Amino acid sequence: MSKDLVSKPVEELAPLIKNREVSSLEVTKAVMNHAETVDETINAFISMTREQAENAARQADQEIASGNYKGMYHGIPMAVKDNLYIKDELTTMASKIHGKYIPDYTATIIDKMKDAGIVFTGKLNMHEYAWGITTNNPHWGACRNPWNTKRYPGGSSGGSGAAVASDMSVASLGTDTAGSIRIPSSTCGIVGLKPTFGRVSKYGCFPLAWSLDHIGPMTKTVKDAAGLLEIIQGFDKNDPTSINVPENKYVDKLNGDIKDLVIGVNEDYYFKDVDREVEENVRKGIKKLEELGAKVETISIPGLKHAEYAELVTSLSEASAIHHRNLVNRPDDYGDDIRLLFELGELPSAVEYLQAQQLRRQLKLDYQKAFEKVDVLVTPTLPIIQPEIGQDTVDLNGKQVDLINHTIRFMGPSNLTGLPSLSVPCGVGKENMPIGMQIIGPPLREDLILNVGYAFEKTNPLQGQKPSFAKSVQ
Amino acid sequence: MKLSIRDVLKDKGIIVKNNHLPVLEERWEGMELLRKEAEDANLDDYDIALRNIPGGDHIE
Which InterPro entries does the entry mention (chain A) (predicted)? Predict the structure, then answer.
């Protein structure tokens, strides 16, 4: 029974817990026992909080028994990325500098999740300070991909991706500044949603780049992502970038009906220099959406030409501003890779940063025009398949190319524009590595992209395939 | 006078590791190429849209 429990998504566990066919404590113990075994190889966890988790699960069971069922996530055990503050609990940012940091307040979204009855089981490994795409962490060890343990899980939320894919966490949260939710979601074969900028409060999350950071769900199914977004969304006066818009319902709007929906495909940018296997899988995915009744239209977004530059200057400059003092005073306490990025981020001038913001504005307006013609955009999530741990280049159709630049190419535009973007699994490629398809929507239309993802998920794109490592230990 | 990357960072109090210099130079050159490509963008009408809200972060 416990083996069956750990592999279930939230949408299947929720009715069992609600109807008291299984208790939150049983699920929590099963998931944590499984995690203790699996994590010896995967290394997705930085800390586990078993005693607090079991106490919270008992409380959830009591609440449910007394008729106070709070919703889909009540009693669901979950670990979160270790850059989200939980009062009086170790929060390391997977760094040496914050290796013993204990926050004196809790992130707004964590409070919302506690109110929804979620049981926290621990904190997850990540790229140090979220400034990278591999989760090859020099202080806490490399996190491994459960589909192929020799390979990266992606990053920066690699621990979240690996934990959900290998059933060590029923769902999770990631943060995304240049793709850090969508990259590991694509690479680990799960669903990752970067909501509209400002939709989800960032208060109590250690920043990487203020104007690009987002927090969002990483889950086994689209419905799970929709349910988690319902909990974490909402205006927060403590976050200066939070937007005051009505909260939305997402789960009830999932019906998979995409008839007459217009899907935009941009060939010049999002299908340029893409791994042949990735391209083949994503085009097949678009074809499936057409078979479900959607129409496909080719569109142009001229501002994408300069998106890479704007993303680089903005993210590098903002991250280096945040870390400037420590880079001066204790540079050796950073991992070598992010120290180099912080050094690089000290080089752009103020004029260059501001011109990057002008390019960003141009890009936003270009997307706005595109969404007058189409409902959503569909792209590959990544143009490449993540390589083996330790590599900083990757094979792209027979040519070795820079791993970072080619991993974030299709990510950055959604961070610059703040547009909601969803990655859903769309196939499995070479070396048993999953491939993701990205669905980008207009501002605040998470409901729309989730419904497209839901329709696609129903076509069973992974054909029931699971990570080989997670299967072998069950 | 063109300052080296090492000098620019030294002026900011940052000590660059020796093995970082060639990588930094390569990456910075890459960014300079992208910047030059962006010079053809006509940005005259693009306000950066930074909001300066008097009295707090949000208009309630």
Answer: Amidase, Amidase_CS, Amidase_dom, AS_sf
Q: Between B13, B28, B41, which is nearest A362 by CB?
A: B41
CA distances to A79, A370, A396, A412, A461 from A215, in Å? 14, 25, 30, 15, 26
Q: The tokens of A420 are what?
A: 């909601």
Give the pLDDT confidence score for residue B55 in this predicted structure. 81
Q: Are A238 and A191 in contact (CB under 8 A)?
A: no
Report chain A residues whose CB lies below 8 A from the CB of B20: 336, 339-340, 343
Q: Does B8 touch chain A (CB under 8 A)?
A: yes
Q: Report whether A216 contacts A229 (CB < 8 A).
A: yes
| ipTM, interface predicted TM-score of the complex | 0.95
A166 is catalytic: no
Q: How would you classify the pairing of strands A434-440 and A421-428? A: antiparallel
The encoded tokens of residue A257 equal 């009906």
**Domain ranges for chain B:** 5-38
Cβ contact (<8 Å) for B38 and A306? yes
From first to last of its 60 residues, chain B has per-residue pLDDT tens of 677 999 999 999 999 998 999 999 999 999 999 999 999 888 888 999 888 888 888 875
User: What are the average pLDDT values for consecutive 10-residue runs of chain A, which has 474 residues?
Assistant: 86 98 98 97 98 98 98 98 97 98 98 98 98 98 98 98 98 98 98 98 98 98 98 97 96 98 98 98 98 98 97 98 98 98 98 97 97 98 97 97 96 98 97 97 98 97 85 53
Q: Are the CB atoms for A71 and A116 separated by under 8 Å?
A: yes
Can you give the pLDDT at residue A471?
Answer: 54
Q: Please judge whether B28 and A347 are an interchain contact, meaning their C-beta atoms are less than 8 angstroms apart.
A: yes
Torsion sign over Cα A27, A466, A457, A79: positive
Which chain A residues have a beta carbon less than 8 Å from that of B12?
324, 328, 346
What residue ranges define each of the domains in chain A, with the CATH number in brackets?
2-472 (3.90.1300.10)
Instruction: Look at phi and psi of residue A249 and say left if phi exceeds 0, alpha if psi is from -120 to 50, else beta.
Output: beta
Chain B residues whose beta carbon lies within 8 Å of the beta carbon of residue A313:
31, 35
Interchain CB distance below 8 Å, B31 and A348: yes
Q: CB–CB of A347 and B35 under 8 A?
A: no
The question of whether A156 is a catalytic residue gets the answer: yes
Active site residue A81: yes
Position A309, amino acid: Y
Q: With contacts defined as CB-CB under 8 Å, which chain B residues touch A328?
A: 12-14
Residues A20 and A17: their CA atoms lie apart, in Å, by 5
